[in-house]
């Protein structure tokens, strides 16, 4: 299992949450999302768990993970480099879907989930993807795919299919990018750290009908 993530530093993560959240609040939500994701992956079968990190670790990192630095370059290059360091079945997820559960990952984490030529793809509702996996890593199939666009997921999936891989889909999930995303994702997993952080930090009505 690979998790690709940024250190939750104010002003460097979740900038689309500001406003209504402050940079410090956005970073706190990012930290909670990452903590939920890492905790979930400890509950799924894996021979090795690796955090591919831009920045430094913090108290949000639980035991059980190896940590490697992200390479430079665009996101496609960083994802490709993460896969290049692996052999055998490998599934990568990001830090923006704290509603992730072992059940959602179950199709890709069973003993028979990785025959030769298999790829797993988790589409994001914004047109990207939240999960990508290979029975045998193929970094070349990620390099050059335009990232962070409405067509990213479609283009990445097409690249996998054109390579002759058997592409299986995981359920679509909503990334936390905007305040509306954060509210919906928090509601989807009310018992997580992200939901607790959102409940604590979300702007609420004040006197005069305005929000803080």
UniProtKB/TrEMBL annotation:
Q: Which InterPro entries match?
A: Nucleotide-diphossugar_trans, Trfase_1_rSAM/seldom-assoc
- Fetch the Pfam families from UniProt: DUF2064
Q: Which Gene3D superfamilies match?
A: Spore Coat Polysaccharide Biosynthesis Protein SpsA, Chain A
What name appears for this protein in its UniProt entry?
Answer: DUF2064 domain-containing protein
